[in-house]
Amino acid sequence: MSPIRLAATELRRITAGKLPKIAVVALVLVPLLYGAMYLYANWDPYNNLKSLPVALVVDDKGAEVNGKQLNAGNEVADELLTNPKFEWHRVSATDAADGVRDNKYTFALTLPADFSQALTSPVQNKPRQGVLQLTTNDSNNYLARTIADKVVDAVRAAVAKKVGTTAADQLLTGYATIRSSTLQAADGASKLADGAAKANDGAQQLATGSADLATGEHKLLDGSNQLVTGLDLLKSNTASLPSKTQQLADGAKQVADGNAQVAAGGSTIATAAQTFNNNLDGVRSDIQARLQAAGLSADQVSQVLAVLDNARKPLNDANGQIQTVNGKLQQLSAGSRQVADGASQLAAASPQLASGIAQADSGATQLRDGLKTATDGADKLSSGASQLASGTKQLADGSAQLRDGLNAGAGKIPDPNDPSATANTIGDPVTVQAVGQATADTYGAGLAPFFLGLATWIGAFVLFLLLRPLSRRALAAKQRPGIVALGGWLPAALLSFLQVVLLFAVVTTLVGVHPSDPLGTLGFLVLTGFAFTAMLHGLNALLGAVGKFLGLVLLVLQLTTAGGTFPWQTIPAPLQPLHIALPLGYVVDGLRHLLYGGALSSLGTDIAVIGGYLVVGLALSVLAAYKQRVWTPSRLKPELVL
Fold first, then answer.
1. Residue 639, SS3?
2. Which of 151, 357, 476, 596 has the fewest Cβ atoms surrounding its Cβ within 10 A?
3. Closest Cα to residue 135, out of 161, 169, 159, 103?
4. Between the CA of residue 571 and those of 266, 567, 579, what are the distances in Å?
5. Closest CA to 515 of 439, 606, 601
6. In the prediction, which pLDDT does 504 show?
7. Please, are residues 115 and 72 in contact by the beta-carbon 8 Å criterion?
């Protein structure tokens, strides 16, 4: 007897009569009812949140900013009501609290009275956070609180974006004002630097000139000291000048008078000598006449006259000397008179001269004292001018650094070309660019791999409520264990194939699952059905009622460890080995890649593991068929029947 004949016999048995046929149809529909209905019910719950009643309380009193009234609470409420994601009900705080407690509202969102004031607090230099009050009640629905948390996070992000954008706009406006003022200050600093440089040049010239002035003042002071010393000496030496000059005048007068007398006597002598000399001329003429009269010849007369002239020559010389001395005596008399007159004038002027010298000495002393004061002032001026030059140098350097620093600082102050866009970027600096390498469009599509795998296991599990694992007739006929095992598994495999095909057809056409690889998905599901039926067939064949119980236990374990909802790495560490050991995790992984279009690199491992479970299940069936060739009391009368 072949396995196919054994399978056909079992199928005829379970379809004999109207009610058995209905039971078979019901078994085929079980995975559809579980998988398709569950996916349909949870296909896109987030798109149906508009029917979720939610309370909205707006107690915001508003705030005044820069002369404008702001009510952020009303703005947030208007935005929530304009594009509603929930069934919002704007109510009072009391109604909201009562509604959440009585399950009238799923949760409540409250914008408190100081909401606007808190948002505008940075402008008042008293920054504090605005508060969004979320009221939930887990007795209404636990997941509703999770949804509410996400909604509040979204509202908070939107408010933060708006407030951040407004604050950034004010900040950029302030930056623009600061930058403009800094540039003006830089221009002023540049002018100041130029002026300071010129002032430094002037101060350097002043320092040089004041140093020269101080040097000259010192030299002048030295000269004035010498002048005072000389005038003091002159004053002391001329103190007796008036009396001495008077004595000189008196003596000069006496000398002049004596010289006048001498000059008078000399004049008399000179007159007498000249008269005598003139008389000698007459005597010569008389002698010449007498000699001529005496009859002397001309030569004799000439000889006599020559002798006479020779004798007269000393007289003529003496007369000349007398006349010369007389002229000198006259000059001496006149000069001595002039000396006497000058000495008299000197005697008259010497008191004034002495007084003038004394005054000059006093003035020189005052000049020296003044020059000393001036010299001290010139020294202070020179020192001050040097300090001024040093200060103006520092001022010039500092103003140049100020100019450069202001220009550099102005270059670092933001000057956006589009302040509005910049403010928006600062207020909302990060956006998310989602790159989906493999995407499930809806919540239901995301759960499809998990629930399709579970539906296949449940479908395989219920089949053995009707099917017999092994043919007793074949066992009694001593058929080979392999043929008996295969014949017992084929009816379940056939019905599993029908379950999978029907489930796949409905979820892809009516529910909305669109596999990236339809044929691959269907083939993988068929393989999964074969493997699950083989495992459950082996457990039922080998262990009977205990095997059915183990099948239920394996279902529960795989529900918690397959990683169908959360990543399997999030399950407790003691359960993670079960994820690796049990087949449903590999089914979920393979279906995800086939449904969403992900990389198929791990699909080989998934198929190998599931195929391995198929082989193991068939091996258990063969073992069971081999063991059941011998009848035992427990087989004839089982202790537990399910």
1. coil
2. 476
3. 103
4. 165, 8, 9
5. 439
6. 92
7. yes
- Cα 522 from Cα 530, distance rounded (Å): 12
Q: Is 467 left (phi over 0), alpha (psi -120 to 50) or beta?
A: beta
Say which amino acid occupies 353: L
Selected residue with higher pLDDT from 612 and 138: 612
Q: Does residue 506 carry a pLDDT above 80?
A: yes
Look at the pTM and tell me if it is higher than 0.70.
Answer: no
- How far apart (Å, rounded) are the C-alpha atoms in residues 525 and 512? 17
Q: Which residue has the higher pLDDT, 429 or 488?
A: 488
User: What b/e sequence results for 568-590 when a residue is b if at least 16 CB atoms lie within 10 Å of its CB, and e otherwise?
Assistant: beebeeeeeebbeebbbbbbbbb
| 362 token code pair | 């006093």
Sign of dihedral through CA atoms 418, 423, 426, 432?
Answer: negative
Q: Give the type of residue at 629.
A: R
User: What tokens does 26 get?
Assistant: 């019901």
Q: Which amino acid is at 446?
A: G
Task: Please state, in angstroms and rounded to a whole number, the distance separating the CA atoms of residues 334 and 569.
Answer: 150
DSSP state of 111: E
Residues composing the chain: 642
- 159, 344, 155, 139: which is closest to 256 by C-alpha? 344
**58 backbone dihedrals φ, ψ, rounded to 5°:** -120, 100
Q: Please, which residues have CB within 8 angstroms of residue 416's CB and are 6 or more apart in sequence? A: 172, 422
CA distance 579 to 561: 5
Q: Of 481, 487, 468, 493, which is closest to residue 622 (Cα–Cα)?
A: 481
Q: CA 103 to CA 108: how far, in whole Å? A: 11
The 3-state DSSP class for residue 69 equals strand
Residue-wise pLDDT tens digits, 174-228: 556 666 677 777 777 777 777 777 877 877 887 787 777 778 778 877 877 787 7
Question: Largest Cα–Cα distance in the chain?
Answer: 241
User: 636-640 contacts: CB < 8 A, separation 24 or more?
Assistant: 638/544, 638/545, 640/544, 640/545, 640/546
**pLDDT value of residue 36:** 78
CA-to-CA separations, 636 to 467, 470, 484, 549, in angstroms, rounded: 19, 15, 19, 20
% the chain with pLDDT above 70: 80
Q: Is the pLDDT of residue 384 over 60?
A: yes
**Four-residue CA torsion sign, 622, 626, 632, 636:** positive
Q: Give, for 339, the enclosing helix (H) or strand (E).
A: helix 298-412
Question: What Rg value do the Cα atoms of the chain yield, rounded?
Answer: 72
Model confidence pLDDT, tens digit, residues 92-113:
999 999 998 988 998 888 988 8
Residue 327 has pLDDT above 90, yes or no: no
One-letter-per-residue 3-state SS of 398-439? HHHHHHHHHHHHHHHCCCCCCHHHHHHHHHCCCCCCCCCCCC
Q: What is the residue whose two structure tokens read 């399709």?
A: 452
Percent of the chain with pLDDT over 90: 14
Sheet containing 107-111, strands listed edge to edge, beginning at the edge strand earlier in sequence: 87-90, 53-58, 107-111, 133-136
Query: What is the rounded CA–CA span in Å between residue 188 and residue 192?
Result: 6
Tokens of 105: 């509202």
- Cα separation, 451 vs 547, whole angstroms: 23
Q: Which helix (H) or strand (E) holds 208?
A: helix 142-237
